[in-house]
Every structure is written in C-alpha cells, then in structure tokens.
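A reminder from the course coordinator: this example appears on the midterm review sheet, so study it carefully.

Given structure:
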C-alpha cells in the first residue's frame, strides 16, 4: 500500500506525453502545443487607431481649442492612405491605418467639426496617443506561444489573427472502460430486487468529455476471470488508457487485478492509504496504462479526479496535471478516525468550504452538488470551524 503522496509521485514517474501531430485550427481547441510557435507577422502589422476620432500631428496642438483643417479619412480595411499634412487632421476610425506623418489620434468626444475643419479641445497631446504601434502586441519572429501552452479560445483567435491555420499539438489519449458486475442493470431493463442501475460509465464518460476527451469505448464483463481478461484485452488493443470499474477489491468475485496481471501488465501500485478509494490499482504494459477503479461511484470519481485525470493531462502534454489546490477555511468542524487520509466532497461558498453530508463511498448525491474535494491527511483528522484545509477545485 502506498500513501497519497507516493501514488501521485508514481503517476508523474510513469506517465509521459503522447506523440504530436498536426491539426487544423478548427480542431485545436483543448489541445496542448508540442512546439513553440513563432509569429509569422507582427501584430499589429501596421499602425492602427484605437479610437474613432481624428489623426493629428501632436506638435500642431499648442492649446485647447486648436483648429485644424480636415483632410480626408481613414477607415478599417483601407489599403492606402495619403500622408497627413502639417496643420491638418484626418477623420479616422477604430482599427484603421494611421496615416504617415500623424503621431496621435484624438478621440471624437474631445473634438467638434464644422465647415471643413475640426476643433481639438484637448491639450497637451502626447505623441503616440491612441495609436497601436507595429508589433505592439508581438513582433514578427518572436515566440507567440510556447510549447506546453493550452489552446483556449483566446489563443486560437490570437494565432489565427497571425495567419496560423494549423498547429503541432500533443495527441489526446484514447480511453476505454470495462464495467464489471453481475448486479448491474442497463437502460430499458426492469428493476429487479438485488440489482442496481449502472451509472459509472455515464459518470466517467461525462468527466472525460469535460476534459475534452470524447468517444469513451465501453465494454461490459461478467464477474468471471475469462470475461474480464477478454474485455481488458480488447480495450487495450485500441486505447492508450484502459479503466476498469469494479472488481478490484478482495472479494470472491473481484477479478480485475488477476486479469490485469494475466495480460502481462506491471503493477505500479495497488491500494492507496486513503478513504474513499483504497483498492485503486495502477498498472502499465508498454505504452498502455491500466487504472482499476473501485465500483462504488463516489470512490470511483474521487480516484478519477485525483489520479486518472492527472495521468490523462500528462499524456496530453499539460504542464500542471493535478487539480488546482488552495487553502481555504472550513465553514464547519469535522473529524474522522482511522489511519487513512480522507477525501471529502466539498462546496465552496463565499470563500469558505463546506464538508458536505453523505461522504459514504456509494453516495453520489453529495458529489452532484460539490465543486471541490477537501483533502485531509491523517495528521489533520480534527478540523475546527475556520481552520485552513487543503481544497482541490473540481474542473468546472
């Protein structure tokens, strides 16, 4: 059995990023750059106005109320603009090219125009006012985005504004799930005494989709060794990560551990000194990872967020794979007995975190309203109201 800290360290030591490939920008959202991107052009690539108003030569303005002759206009998209003559002003619009010779732009609200001239009511006017200079955002040839950058909507817009239409990114892992258990019912089945409706596959598929990993391959296995081996083997042929739900404890009908071993996978760790989720198994065979999650849904989801999700993020090239961690005051006191660290479902409200009711490993109702996981090591098994606790933010 390993500690929580040891288990997470073993994730870092045994998981690496997947190979990179080229994708079109329309498919790049949520991927991570596998190489630096150099700016193919400067942004802006020409001097632009940041205001609707008038382009002027700043030294022409000697006092508030200076009157300048109006001389043409410059609008967005205009490909040629005449130079500005001394003593003149040019009507200009946001994003339009600043004419040669102009050194500032006066916003429209600080002017008045009539009879072919404009009155500037602003003084003094510093050079460069309301002018976006060439390369002000980025210079041509500079590193636009570094390797390891997560491609958000903002970064995609930034790159496409520089005429970048495809990027080199890490592949996202393909994930398969084997659900075990003779007690499970599925959509359309009548409710039978002694059986339950299977929910872990929908829960894990949703969690993966939230991370941008779609198309979870799901198979089901009866509670016997041969069926479990066959299901895991098939999933391992087509997926980078194979999850198993249930069948990993020490009961007579728990066969996942034996099946993983039968496939020749090397166990990295089995059992973590934690509650819930003690019977967690992490194994690997060549480049394929195996995670055997407890069948109890709350235990399964805790193990996904704390261990599986970081592994998936590492494979996808992310630099900070673990859930964002904060220290926050507990709104209410709580305590526990035992020799295992505890993960509690929590709800953050107004800068405090509430340890929710219903912390049992089978109970998902508390997870349905939680937005955080509270991590309490055994050295902090008694928490008073207002004590600072470690909080892991759920990724939504």
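Designed residues:
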């Amino acid at each position: 059995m390993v500690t929580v800290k040891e288990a997470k360290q073993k994730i870092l030591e045994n998981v690496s990023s997947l190979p990179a490939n080229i994708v079109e920008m329309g498919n790049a959202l949520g991927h991570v750059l596998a190489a630096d991107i150099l700016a193919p052009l400067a942004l802006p690539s020409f001097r632009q106005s940041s205001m609707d108003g008038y382009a002027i030569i700043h030294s022409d303005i000697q006092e508030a109320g200076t009157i300048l002759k109006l001389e043409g206009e410059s609008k967005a998209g205009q490909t040629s603009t005449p130079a500005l003559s001394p003593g003149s002003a040019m009507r200009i619009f946001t994003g339009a090219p600043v004419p040669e010779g102009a050194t500032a732009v006066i916003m429209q609200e600080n002017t008045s125009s009539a009879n072919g001239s404009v009155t500037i009511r602003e003084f003094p006017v510093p050079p460069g006012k309301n002018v976006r200079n060439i390369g002000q955002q980025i210079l041509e040839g500079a590193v636009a985005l570094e390797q390891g950058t997560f491609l958000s909507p903002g970064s995609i817009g930034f790159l496409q504004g520089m005429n970048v239409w495809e990027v080199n990114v890490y592949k996202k892992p393909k994930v398969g799930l084997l659900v075990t258990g003779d007690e499970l019912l599925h959509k359309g089945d009548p409710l039978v005494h002694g059986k339950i409706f299977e929910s872990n596959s929908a829960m894990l598929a949703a969690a993966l989709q939230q991370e941008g990993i779609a198309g979870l391959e799901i198979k089901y296995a009866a509670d016997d060794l041969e069926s479990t081996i066959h299901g895991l083997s098939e999933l391992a042929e087509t997926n980078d990560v194979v999850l198993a739900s249930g069948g990993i404890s020490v009961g007579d009908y728990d066969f996942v551990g034996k099946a993983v071993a039968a496939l020749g996978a090397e166990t990295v760790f089995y059992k973590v000194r934690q509650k819930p989720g003690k019977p967690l198994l992490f194994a690997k065979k060549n480049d394929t990872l195996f995670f055997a999650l407890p069948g109890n849904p709350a235990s399964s989801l805790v193990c996904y967020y704390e261990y599986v999700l970081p592994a998936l993020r590492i494979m996808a090239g992310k630099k900070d794979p673990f859930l964002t961690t904060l220290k926050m005051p507990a709104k209410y006191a709580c305590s526990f007995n035992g020799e295992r660290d505890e993960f509690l479902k929590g709800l953050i409200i107004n800068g405090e975190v509430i340890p929710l009711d219903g912390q049992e490993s089978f109970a998902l109702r508390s997870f349905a309203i939680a937005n955080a996981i509270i991590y309490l090591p055994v050295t902090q098994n008694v928490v008073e109201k207002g004590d600072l606790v470690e909080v892991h933010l759920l990724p939504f």
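The longest helix spans residues 297-315. The chain has a mean pLDDT of 95.
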